[in-house]
Amino acid sequence: MRANYKMQRLFVPDDLASGATFDADPQQSHYLAHVLRLGEGAEVLLFNGRDGEWSARIAGKTKKAVRLEVVDLQRPQPIHPDLFYCFAPLKVGRLDYLVQKAVEMGAGTLVPVITQHTQMKPGIDRLRGNAVEAAEQCGILAIPEVRETVKLEHLIAGWDKERRLIFCDEDASTNNPMAALQGIKERKLALLVGPEGGFSDDERRMLRALPYVTAIPLGPRILRADTAAVAALAVIQAVIGDW
């Protein structure tokens, strides 16, 4: 069932069931009451990443909060996406874009990874906020898990060998990723995208030596890291993903 994009969607932490009532948080309450100017009885859509999507109505308003009453289930909770997206953090504005697009493209787990050329460590709360915002805007019900930042060598040391790790290698000998992707048989997948300076030679050699790693190119053009992330996710989903 497709999302209803005509109604306002809100992510809430509360359990959702018919007849449940609770106050929207202060920011959401201000948005509903003073930006959208919705009155009592107005309907919105709620989701929490666990219980599906529910219609709700504004049951009351005070100076501090908007009271919401859950009405009917609109869409059941889907299976959580199993695609891992592992990425070297970028500057704040571009990182916001990267996370939002990864969520839109079907990533179910986000893992910030520190490489030799990584220049910053991200704020996890900001990453989670961007994931929620993307889900609200795009009708997504499964909120991606955002894991703590990890160094590349520690990520590899604890890797599930049954999950195929696809990494974007700018030094690949071909410009076409299709042949490498079409040869992948595993259904558990992860994508690794490097920083603005790319992977170091040592990192590239380490990754290429691992039996569960597949290196892919992204064509003849030089792409910024955030653009490369979207391009790689798109081609993976189109060739071996859920498209």
Can you give a write-up of this model?
With 243 residues, the protein is α/β, with parallel strands linked by helices. It has helices spanning 26-35, 92-104, 124-138, 152-157, 178-182, 201-208, 225-240, and strands spanning 9-11, 21-23, 43-47, 53-61, 66-75, 84-87, 109-114, 145-146, 150-151, 164-168, 189-193, 213-216. Helix 2 packs across helix 3 (124-138) and helix 2 packs parallel to helix 7 (225-240). The longest helix has 16 residues, at 225-240. The chain is elongated and about 60 Å long.
Strand-helix topology:
Blueprint: E1 9-11, E2 21-23, H1 26-35, E3 43-47, E4 53-61, E5 66-75, E6 84-87, H2 92-104, E7 109-114, H3 124-138, E8 145-146, E9 150-151, H4 152-157, E10 164-168, H5 178-182, E11 189-193, H6 201-208, E12 213-216, H7 225-240
Parallel strand pairs: 1-3, 6-7, 6-11, 7-8, 7-9, 10-11, 10-12
Antiparallel strand pairs: 2-5, 3-4, 4-5
Summarize the structure.
It is built from 7 helices and 12 strands.
Task: List its traits.
5-stranded mixed beta sheet, Ribosomal Protein L25, Chain P, 12 strands, alpha/beta, Alpha/beta knot, 7-stranded parallel beta sheet
